[in-house]
Predict the 3D structure of the following.
Amino acid sequence: MKKGNISIIIIVVIVIIGMMLINGYNGLVTKQENIESMASNLDVMLQRRADLIPNLVSTVKGYTQHETEVIDKITQARAKLVNANGMAEKSEANAELTSSLNALMLVIENYPDLKASPNFTQLSDELAGTENRIAVARKDYNEAVKAFNTSIKKFPNNLLSGILGFEQAEYFQASEGSTEVPSVTFN
């Protein structure tokens, strides 16, 4: 072989390797940004839920003068959720808030006037819709995390991710007891 042909082969190999590295890096960045976007969407839904709760609590307070313990727990759980940092902390705060809201819904069963209130009905419908949006946002976030984590574990991205500092993303975990269906009705 001639020296010129060897040089061309080396240049082609270097260009191919360079393109593979660039493509791998860009893929990891895209997936990482997708996670950030999904996390932001989830945060928006969690914030919407947190914003609805003071109105719900105020409505319930108007009808239930002596149910302060449940209302205080909701207020504390909401504050934890609003101030949570990181997916693990948000997941834990979300579980605590869900538990507190479930307790509130059980208390509400004892107040037929409250259940008949148009304001309460509207707020509970909005909260139910928001819960559905949160479920979708959690699913979308976890799918993005799965795609990213799978990508950084596969060869050759596993070499690239270690060198460039890409670390596994954190899933939004279901809380303990979340498989139990709460007994809540709005009749």
Notes: The chain has one domain: 3-164. The CA atoms of residues 116 and 187 lie 8 Å apart.
